[in-house]
Amino acid sequence: MNDKMEQFVKWVEESDNIVFFGGAGVSTESGIPDFRSVDGLYHQKYDYPPETILSHSFYMRKPEEFFRFYKNKMLFPKAEPSTTHKKLAKLEADGKLKGIVTQNIDGLHQKAGSRHVIELHGSVLRNYCERCHQFYGLDAILQSEGVPKCSCGGRIKPDVVLYEEGLDEENIEEAVRLIREADILIVGGTSLGVYPAAGLIDYYRGHKLVLINKSETPYDNRADLLIHDALGEVFSKIG
Hints:
Blueprint: H1 3-14, E1 18-22, H2 25-28, H3 50-53, H4 56-61, H5 63-73, H6 83-93, E2 97-102, H7 108-112, E3 117-119, E4 122-129, E5 135-136, H8 139-142, E6 156-160, H9 169-181, E7 184-188, E8 209-212, E9 225-227, H10 231-235
Parallel strand pairs: 1-2, 1-7, 2-3, 7-8, 8-9
Antiparallel strand pairs: 4-5, 4-6
Organism: Lachnospira intestinalis
GO molecular function: NAD-dependent protein lysine deacetylase activity
Cofactor: Zn(2+)
């Protein structure tokens, strides 16, 4: 291992108050494309850009087009947890990791066994009727034709935060608490360009900010330990 990897492993071994803040890069190793990567959604060709389709106003205005895109490009029911997901779950089981704050909506952290997961942008696994508020699982979306409908006739909406929608206040408060109280804050697989989520890192008060990402981020100069490498490669070094 190089010096940075050894430092990372040492810090993890010595701490019992770790918090992980992650983005799309955590799940790319599970085969889920990153919105902003070369092969991601932002480089696909559609009648509208993904940011537009995944907005609240577009969802209300053109629900058929929204769900056509959503079902084709946002749902990966066969995806399995990556090395990073599994290692984080083990760190939590060992009493070292206090929580995960994720921008992802795929539910893979929970599938790997993690329990304390703050899903800033919701989850594709949860869906609800806009009329009667009955909850539905992922199959209700996957097996629907066109716009999914509840038995009451209402439209079923994915419990994900669309562009133009605000984040859940309780989630924000819990994420702030976790990050503020953390000994080590590991930030991984995120470009830190999406706000207000990225701004949560400003609440960290410690001196062990670990930033793991293949490309540069606006926070690189603030990291106490900066590792430009694949997440799975880094987390595989943890016992």
